[in-house]
């Protein structure tokens, strides 16, 4: 799960009137933000995760101020880069901003971007640093020209205010979702009363965009999920949010837990979340279990495990047994796990569906396709391995596989590969039909990615930003379910990329969104798995098919 931009920028600066802050502290503030920007340039993780990943040791208020600067700089990044083209500070000030910077130092471009943001777009319109710090005068020497060029851009874009030049995440942020958590020991009626006191009026029907000061129950998850205007922030410092009664969670992210717990009966068995951090989905599964029974929660990353523990404590999830371990190392037949009947799989993915993460602003439309495809193949291999391991649990009868990705390589193609595996055929694994996978949701899978099988495509869920959610994919495996040889099939053109390119293991997979995606580096060193065997078999079949085609 990635951070949403809910920080007030007006107080992000390191200094306030009457407060003495050392030059070194100011330097570190800007450098930390620039280091995080460098990390995001490589498309690694989330805005919040970029701080730790870049080696920035900031906590509490300091971390929030740095995050606010990063987020605001990302919003104006296209304009700032345009300014650097017309006012080439990097080449005009080479001594201060060298092309190559020392190890663990931020790039000159990222440092200039955060400084330009504060000079041109911050509430105080100034760089909060001493004139003795070389980068400040190096930028200030070009202040007049920068402001003139900014006005020129503003006129060209037809914007009445310079703030209107900010890039936003689009329609996906027009709605903010709040999930009611009964585990906190309060009722829906109490929440409604609280929101009334906050000045919000509950509507009887869904209205988009959500009117200011209004909210309504989501049409697909009406008993737990509520939609608010995109600029809402009533939960900041609120007792309901702080006490775990109200949880910020995107609508699409709620769907896997809901599908997993379809027709759940207390006493059926135990549940398992294979990649549990940060804990939103886990806490929802716990609530759907009425906080009873046992819910196993796996998380291999030490840092993310701490986040998981905090979330579970905040959400009052007393039926969860969290363990810092790799799900793929677990023994399906162990005494501890033999009673598991349902598994939630939301593994590392590209995060391509996340629209309310601010690091989408670093995307380059000219990204090299080869690098992208290679990364997707590694991720798909890791995802397939997770599913095949889940298939081994002897008493499991329902497995939900989801991603916060819009790429077929991580979605339908992984599902089809899993269905065609030996263990799936041996143990009768198929897909649950649409009737058991939120049937009222209209957007379903892509038939061209399921071999033209419309029933298979209808059995999975797809979400896109125009649905007022993040991009998401949800599928549900059940015993004796729908298989590729079943259902209605229509002729389809083959996909541009065959499913057989899926690699078995991801070596550098980023963490969830979801998610913050954790890498699957250690998994790449494992012994040959069923995923590898299956891939080899399919690759051989593809080669034979190509030979036959050549002969013909």
From TrEMBL:
Residues 166-480 form the SAM-dependent MTase RsmB/NOP-type domain. It comes from the Eukaryota. One of its GO terms (molecular function) is RNA methyltransferase activity. GO terms for biological process: rRNA base methylation. Residues 484-552 are annotated as: Disordered. The active site is at residue 404. It holds the Pfam family Methyltr_RsmB-F. Residues 484-502, 520-535 have a biased composition (Basic and acidic residues). GO terms for cellular component: nucleolus. SUPFAM superfamilies: S-adenosyl-L-methionine-dependent methyltransferases. Belongs to the class I-like SAM-binding methyltransferase superfamily. RsmB/NOP family. This is SAM-dependent MTase RsmB/NOP-type domain-containing protein. The lineage of its organism: Eukaryota, Fungi, Dikarya, Basidiomycota, Agaricomycotina.
